[in-house]
Amino acid sequence: MPPLSIMVLPNELIANIVSCLAETGVERRKLLVRLSKTNRVISHYATLELYRSITVDDGILVALLKAIIQKPALRHLVRHLEIAGAPALRGERSNSSFSRLESDMSYWNDSKLNDQESQLFLLAKAMCFGCRENTMKGQIAFGLLMLLTDRVESFEFSGQVFERFVSHFLVAGMRMMAMWDKTKYINPTNKNRILFPACTQLRIGKGSLDLEGLVIWRQRFRPVAALLFPTTLTSLTVDSDDNTWRSLDTAQISGRLALRYIRLNNTKTNDSGLCKLLKRCPGLLELELFYKTKGQVNADLGTAYSINNVLPVSCPQLQKLTLSLKGRHRQFFTHEPELLTCLTQMVCLRDLRIDLDCLFKNAASFEVEARDIHSVLPPNLDRLFLDSTWFLSHLGGRAASHPDTYRYKEGMEWLISPFCHPRTFPIPRNNIGVIIIAVKHGRQRQWQRTANQQLRCAHGTVLKFISHSDAPAMWSDKWESMVFKRPKARAEDL
Which SUPFAM superfamilies does its entry note (predicted)? Predict the structure, then answer.
């Protein structure tokens, strides 16, 4: 029997094999380089994967940067562009590639560029002519890279990326590109100029969200507006914003966004600042907010909004809501009663992960109102994760013997009674499929034992209690793994 060869496989299967190899290990780039030097078929797919994702950091080679700019065939392969660390752009580190450019752009080859790209290249050369430092030339080269890679679908950056020289070049370059093709580089609804017109995913790192921008040629350039308004952009992730959305109205960034998914990590925004973003997202389907445990929230600017009034009206199609405030609901909610009371109006909401103190103000109200918890939940809710880890955090070391702890336990008993004893208590009006509750200072094992005996034969709801130590992983986990994941070994519950 002759030896089998990978070349007898269909091209689609060969492409999948190369794609899987590109996702394994830290040596993926070296592996793809070796594969690109084999036969023509494998070399084609290896080259696609090699240039699909580009990370601009201190370790990027100047030759690679030049090749991507000068060769459209390679540049059009880039689908993910990540700017990892702004110090490399400013030359703050001695080993920064941008601070060690061998020569200015006058020696670069633009023979393979089309007429429009050559004009951008000529603009970059003209701006580099008056620059003495290689750092400035590096910033202009980086701006040229951003303008030419117009097929990028995912863009990620952190730090102060849009420095002075980068911004100046982008303003001039974006005006030129808008004159060439208004349908591609200008949003039709708000006339904003667009950067990365094919971008679908945007991630803004720590210290990068700047709504004000710089004043360039007597006009303010706001890079965030150029990044947020592509009609293809559906996913936005922001890390560690200091309530920057509060100035969204005063920044004169108008128009609707095409976002379907928003995630704010370690945020310090309040509900009023968040509402100024939500008002521009009528088609939002998923919203995830993870609050920062420490730090003061910046004061609001302009009109103050309440999330209970804005969320049902501005985002009626919302299907998934994750609200992790970590005991800081008083800092987040700017209006009384400092609770999320609009859930009953969210008819499309089916996936809810929320802190207990976002639904009940204190232990006394929880003890009284827990039996009727369905009156504060969405009518068509299918999956519920309720975290009570921070509910008694204000008690500190007094929680073991404090009266609020006993009220909390009684409230939890009333909460699960309609599910575990349907004959004694009325069946809830909305049949939730999965309920996972993270408890602290409670009888977790006793409640779980009762639920296992009564619940499944009642009306099909799956009820699971987990320890507060397992709660952090549940906020971002999949529901299938949340239901079947075994809890960690722990001491007997109180």
Answer: RNI-like
